[in-house]
Amino acid sequence: MDRETLFSTSSGDRPAVWIGVSRSVPREWMEPVLWGLEEEGVPAEIREYAEGSAEELARREAQRSPLEVGIGVEGRGKGIALYHRDLIRFGPLFFFEGSELDPGGLRRLGKNAARLVKRQPLDFGEECSAPDVPAAGGERDPERVMKRIIAEILNHI
Amino acid sequence: MRDILAVDTLRPQKVLGGLAGEYAMGNAVGLAAMVETHRLPMQRLATKLQDEIGVPVSVGGVEADMAVLGALTTPGTSVPLAVLDLGGGSTDASFLGEKGDTRSIHLAGAGDMVTLLIDTELGLENREAAEQIKRCPLAKVETLFNVRHEDGSVRFYEEPLDPRFFGRVVALSEEGLVPLETDAPLDRIVDVRRRAKSKVFVQNALRALSAVAPAGNIRLIGFVVLVGGSALDFEIPRMISDALTERGVVTGRANVRGSEGPRNAVATGLVLSHTRNGEA
Predict the structure, then answer these.
(1) How far apart are CA A19 and CA A25, in angstroms?
(2) Min CA distance, B72 vs chain A (Å)?
(3) Which residue in B33, B105, B114, B139 has the most C-beta neighbors within 10 A?
(4) How far apart are CA B4 and CA B251, in angstroms?
(5) In angstroms, rounded to a whole number, what is the distance separating the alpha carbons of residues B98 and B94?
């Protein structure tokens, strides 16, 4: 079976993340999101609407997308939301507006939409590193170790 | 230096000239060493503590012998008995015969070394994460609403999981799910964990028990009681028990004073020894 027949001919059934965009949003502004998705190898389809908040659009697109993931983009780049169909009762997975909407953040959102589909860990940017283990060297000093042991014992008495 | 344990392991090493952060597994050796302790620092600690609390404090007792005394408070135990103390820094064994004869040994290599091996082979560079992997069963977060445990069973949640957990392997700790930073798949992490525990504890259990067994023959031991923090681990006692069953030895976890489980054996033994000997 070749690739053409593997996926249905109707574009509505093609496995893709659906992106609902308000008509007033310039296409160039949206590109980083598409790059993020492309980088992760997941197809996306854009549909334009006259109106709708980012959340409403994302919610609707997630319900219809064959991959169960939807993105909604509000008018004049006011906000962007990422939804998974399983979250219909709960709220968007991510919602960004204002200063968070730089190309880097948009690209990351696209990446995360794809990772959601592929069930891979999400990208949170520079934050989220494991807490540093306190250096063991400081505890080698016998006096300090003794003080700690005694303090611990006194706590328990 | 009284004992050394060397364990072969693997370590991810960056490939020189690699463009995409490639790494290959290189050989490494983990070492645990048992060093003779001087009485002096312990005596200083005892003196300081005595000054603080005004109660006489003395240093005494061979750890392995105290572990036996404590283990014997487990209901249903009696001599002859071997006690295996699975600690963080050392694996100790003692044998108490019917006539009250004892033999004991302290070997390097225990819980801390298992953590080191896990840390090294997974390239974590994070002792805390390695400890979590050692102590806790693992699961993979499959969707926003369910995890799959390492035994294959699936657990669903009413509320969506934190997106930071999504797609990650998590450790099921008492404080809840702890996401692990490693990219290694669940099966590999489980395999590393089990092999580390086996290389250290099973090997040391056999080594230690052979040293204290009558005529150096483990088969003559009969019954082994496990004490120590690592005897609380969810898989180490079973691994040791399986290895010993092959040699006709029955293994059980201690229940010190009928209430403490495998912990507190040495402390209990010290108190018993003191009261029995009527030391001042």
Answers:
(1) 12
(2) 26
(3) B114
(4) 26
(5) 13
